[in-house]
Structure formats: C-alpha cells, structure tokens
Amino acid sequence: MLGSRVEAEDAAQEALVQAWRGLSTFRGESAFSTWLYRIVTNRCLNFRAARPPTEVPPDVLIDRDSDPPEALERSERLHALARGLLQLSAEQRAALVLRELEGMSYEEIGQVLGVTVPAVKGRIHRARLALLQASGTWR
Amino acid sequence: MALTGGLTRPPCGAELAPLIAQVAEGATADDPAHQAECPYCQAALSHIRELWSDVRALADLPVRAPRGLPGRVLARVSGPAGAVTLPDATRGHTRVSEGVLAGVAREAAQAMPAVAFASVLAHAAGAGSVVLRVRLVTAYGPSLSVLAAAVREQIVTHVGRMTGVRVTEVHVSVEDLATPDA
Question: What is the mean pLDDT of each run of 10 residues along chain B (182 residues)?
Fold first, then answer.
C-alpha cells in the first residue's frame, strides 16, 4: 500500500490508536475487520496524498528458506513487481492490494474505500492492466 | 522467465482487459472459439499467467506484525489523554484536555438537584468539539427522559461557555437511583 516498511509500521500504529479511540463509533454496519481495513487504508491514502512516494526501493520480504539462487531471482522479480505497484495511483493500488493481496470481495473493498462495487471493479481492472502493461520495465 | 517488454495487445485485436480477467478471476473467454485457435491470444494468455504468478507469489509472502507494535499502540492509548484544540487561534493554539472537559461536564451535571452523582468520559472529536459519555445516579422521582434532556442541555451550555469547546453529543446513561434514605 505504501511501499515502505517504516511508513507501513507508522501507519499500522496510528491506525490502531485511532481505532481504539474510535471504538465507540463502530456501529456494526460492516464486519469489524472491514471497519479496521477502512481506517488503515484511509490512513495510508491520506499519508500518500500528503507525501508522494519516494524513490526508495520498496521493501519486500524474502522467504529465506528457499534455495539462494532461486530466492534471489524470486526476490528480484517481486521487487520489480512492487515497484510496478508503486507506479499506480494510490486509489488504484489500494483497490488492487485489497483484492489481490488481502483477498477481499468487491463488496468489502467498496465498503473500505467508500465507493460502489462497479467503481471498485473498474479501478481493479484498470490497475491490473496498467500493472501488466508496465511489466516490461520490471526487470 | 526471460520475458522482456511489457504486455501489449495481441495483433489479432483481442482486448487485453478480458484476457487479464480470465487469468486473474477465472472469467470466461469473450470468444472461446477464436481464442482456442488464435496463437496470439494463447501467447498473451501465457504471458499474463506468468506475470500473474508473481502477483500470487507476492500475495503468498508471509506478513509478520512488526516487533513491539502492540506495546507501542498500548503505550499511546493509555498515555497522555487527548485534547481539543480550540478554533480561531490567532496568536498560538489553546488546547483543553479531555480530563478538563469531563470535569467541567461532571460539575455541571452534579449541580442539578436531581443528580446525585455523575461521572463523565470525554472524547475529543476534532475541530474544537467533544463527545461526552455521562453516567448518572439520579434522585427517585423525576421523569428520566426529561432529566436526561435537562442534563444534556446543562452540560452543553456549561462546557461551551466555560471552555469554548462545542459539545456535539452527550450520551446519558442512568446507572442507579439514589433512594432518600441511602
């Protein structure tokens, strides 16, 4: 979502504090996890709006148990993909991350982002297309 | 693994978006008959599948909560309480802590004859406003709905006048009755 481990930790911490303070505003209109996702996602989007992404390469965790050469290539590919994700607009990236990395349904994503299901689908389709079309610059 | 160049629309004229949806979502092909015969579509599909496997691999990476995150969050939520910043600051800001707002509201409620005891929690609600939760022990007798409304009115007026903070909500909960002999 943010492309930076440090920023993600900050966002997670701030979002949890905010959720705790705002616990009484949770009205049970959506699943608790969806409510929490909304707080975290909004925090990330606001953060990104205030500070455009830096050129710092994205942090990707590597599975250290794999074969070293294989792990290295995999890690390079995933870094490249993460850089591709950072090229998307924050709104497209948020929708795509919630869908592909968090495995949420279009309905849930709509609740998190506060947009309609067709709008979510549109965003995700455009994000996938942009991501794959930019894939030549991954490596 | 030796792919170069970005994904481009196949020369047969098929749209990329439906092909991607086919791989990413298991959507059905727009034109299965054409696709089965078309080498360009097949090449594009296999290119997409390979690229998409990276997305799946990224999704499968384990995510570990940062070390110490729960501790830091708890330190924040139990640390210094929040405060409301008053609007229309011209030469420096004025902040009123939640504890002060709760105290003012409590005094206002307890000054009412029908209120035997009041306890108040204040939550800063942003933009110079506060939400209050009031728990009451009331005298036996008056209509509770009338009393609650009166307490609400009294608190809003009093807090507003004394602190300049706008009270947006007052949630009143009557917890107990004070009997005359107690």
Answer: 66 90 90 91 91 89 78 66 77 85 91 88 84 89 91 95 92 83 50
How far the first Cα of chain B sits from its last, in Å, is: 83
pTM of the model: 0.62
Contact A78 B58 (CB under 8 A): yes
Q: What is the C-alpha separation between A5 and B175, in angstroms, rounded?
A: 47
Q: Identity (one letter) of the amino acid at A39? A: I
User: Where do runs of H (alpha helix) occur along chain B?
Assistant: 16-25, 32-37, 39-60, 69-77, 98-110, 144-163
Contact by Cβ (8 Å): B24, B52: yes
| Domain total in chain A | 1
Q: How does strand B95-97 pair with strand B83-85?
A: antiparallel
Range of the domain at A67: 5-137
Q: Are B154 and B112 in contact (CB under 8 A)?
A: yes
Taking CB atoms and an 8 Å limit, are A135 and B3 in contact across chains? Answer: yes
Q: Which domains does chain B have, with CATH numbers?
A: 16-60 (no CATH), 81-178 (3.30.70.1350)
Give the count of beta carbons closer than 10 Å to the beta carbon of residue A10.
15
Q: What is the largest CA-CA distance in chain B?
A: 93
Query: Quick one: closest CA in B to A100, which residue?
Result: B59
A66 Cβ under 8 Å from any chain B Cβ: no
- Classify the complex by whether its ipTM is higher than 0.85, answering yes or no: no
Note the helical H segments in chain A.
5-21, 32-50, 68-87, 90-96, 106-113, 117-133
Tell me the backbone φ, ψ of residue B15, rounded to 5 degrees: -75, 145
